């Protein structure tokens, strides 16, 4: 009987209303133009990275295998939220169905958590490459790389299923306004018609703990790498420092959001939307810029790919 009542209460809310980023029409037009450019560049940049890595056999090494995974995740992660946000810019009623909201939350956390695990794996890859170069291809062989990829995708899927399950079991029978431009667990559970204190603790202990632990592991890994670099020759040191600096930039931008949002109770702060914009629209764009402009091998492979295409067109 109680389960039937809960299901009836849950089904009372069939749509949520998204507040978006602004109610000012001029601001919305400006943001539409800006985020459309960001999204198109995100798709082009990350897809080019994947194509270049697949095309150039010199890049068929663990570091670029994981980089291609990162680019794929960034495309998917951005696509979960940005197209909906762009479409809502021209809509007076920014509505999203309950099922679509749940789907958005599932894929948002799937790609976000998978990226956190991937960044941690990439840090380990750099640690082995720099601190144990003679053992690198033995430790990071293709079997290990594939197993790590399967593990991080599996971990992301389990995490997302757990969070989404906690959210959809709650009764939603009244408030239907989400103070953001996409559905996320902290904003959605605030609309539940029941006490969500225990759920909030579970979210902090899940998402928050994953973010903090991975961030600490990453910082420690790069600290060990930097100590190791002090003993290397200047040329190799500069290249390794450049790679580590790129990785640390990505880690700080991405995990900074996760720690800020998921390591505290579900309370709204003025900074939440700004942080969410960086998380969903800006960081996926910065990744290809950071990893390619500071990487001579990627630039060389891309120029080779473009040059071959031009030669084909001339023929």
TrEMBL record:
<dbReference type="InterPro" id="IPR050427">
    <property type="entry name" value="Olfactory_Receptors"/>
</dbReference>
<keyword id="KW-0472">Membrane</keyword>
<dbReference type="GO" id="GO:0004984">
    <property type="term" value="F:olfactory receptor activity"/>
</dbReference>
<dbReference type="InterPro" id="IPR017452">
    <property type="entry name" value="GPCR_Rhodpsn_7TM"/>
</dbReference>
<keyword id="KW-0552">Olfaction</keyword>
<dbReference type="InterPro" id="IPR000725">
    <property type="entry name" value="Olfact_rcpt"/>
</dbReference>
<keyword id="KW-1003">Cell membrane</keyword>
<dbReference type="GO" id="GO:0004930">
    <property type="term" value="F:G protein-coupled receptor activity"/>
</dbReference>
<keyword id="KW-0675">Receptor</keyword>
<feature type="transmembrane region" description="Helical">
    <location>
        <begin position="29"/>
        <end position="55"/>
    </location>
</feature>
<protein>
    <recommendedName>
        <fullName>Olfactory receptor</fullName>
    </recommendedName>
</protein>
<feature type="transmembrane region" description="Helical">
    <location>
        <begin position="274"/>
        <end position="293"/>
    </location>
</feature>
<keyword id="KW-0297">G-protein coupled receptor</keyword>
<feature type="transmembrane region" description="Helical">
    <location>
        <begin position="106"/>
        <end position="124"/>
    </location>
</feature>
<feature type="domain" description="G-protein coupled receptors family 1 profile">
    <location>
        <begin position="45"/>
        <end position="291"/>
    </location>
</feature>
<dbReference type="Pfam" id="PF13853">
    <property type="entry name" value="7tm_4"/>
</dbReference>
<feature type="transmembrane region" description="Helical">
    <location>
        <begin position="209"/>
        <end position="229"/>
    </location>
</feature>
<comment type="similarity">
    <text>Belongs to the G-protein coupled receptor 1 family.</text>
</comment>
<feature type="transmembrane region" description="Helical">
    <location>
        <begin position="241"/>
        <end position="262"/>
    </location>
</feature>
<keyword id="KW-0807">Transducer</keyword>
<feature type="transmembrane region" description="Helical">
    <location>
        <begin position="144"/>
        <end position="162"/>
    </location>
</feature>
<keyword id="KW-0812">Transmembrane</keyword>
<dbReference type="GO" id="GO:0005886">
    <property type="term" value="C:plasma membrane"/>
</dbReference>
<keyword id="KW-1133">Transmembrane helix</keyword>
<dbReference type="InterPro" id="IPR000276">
    <property type="entry name" value="GPCR_Rhodpsn"/>
</dbReference>
<keyword id="KW-0716">Sensory transduction</keyword>
């Amino acid at each position: 009987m109680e389960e039937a009542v809960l299901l009836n209460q849950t089904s009372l809310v069939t749509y949520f209303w998204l507040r978006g980023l602004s109610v000012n029409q001029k601001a919305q037009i400006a943001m539409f133009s800006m985020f459309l450019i960001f999204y198109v560049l995100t798709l082009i940049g990350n897809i080019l990275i994947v194509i270049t890595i697949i095309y150039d056999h010199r890049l068929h090494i663990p570091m670029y295998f994981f980089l291609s995974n990162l680019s794929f995740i960034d495309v998917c992660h951005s696509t979960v939220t940005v197209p909906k946000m762009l479409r809502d810019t021209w809509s007076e009623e920014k509505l999203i169905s309950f099922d679509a909201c749940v789907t958005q939350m599932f894929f948002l956390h799937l790609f976000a958590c998978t990226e956190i695990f991937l960044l941690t794996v990439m840090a380990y890859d750099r640690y082995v490459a720099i601190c144990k170069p003679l053992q690198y291809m033995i430790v990071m062989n293709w079997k290990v790389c594939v197993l790590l990829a399967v593990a991080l995708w599996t971990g992301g899927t389990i995490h997302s299923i757990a969070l989404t399950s906690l959210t959809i079991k709650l009764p939603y029978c009244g408030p239907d306004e989400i103070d953001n431009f996409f559905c996320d667990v902290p904003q959605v559970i605030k609309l539940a018609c029941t006490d969500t204190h225990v759920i909030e603790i579970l979210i902090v202990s899940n998402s928050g703990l994953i973010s903090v632990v991975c961030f600490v592991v990453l910082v420690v890994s790069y600290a060990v790498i930097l100590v190791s670099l002090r003993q290397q020759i200047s040329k190799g040191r500069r290249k390794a420092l450049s790679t580590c600096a790129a990785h640390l930039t990505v880690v700080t931008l991405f995990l900074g959001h996760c720690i800020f949002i998921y390591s505290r109770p579900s309370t709204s702060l003025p900074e939440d939307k700004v942080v969410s914009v960086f998380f969903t629209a800006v960081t996926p764009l910065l990744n290809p810029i950071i990893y390619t402009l500071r990487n001579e091998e990627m630039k060389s492979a891309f120029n080779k790919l473009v040059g071959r295409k031009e030669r084909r067109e001339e023929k």
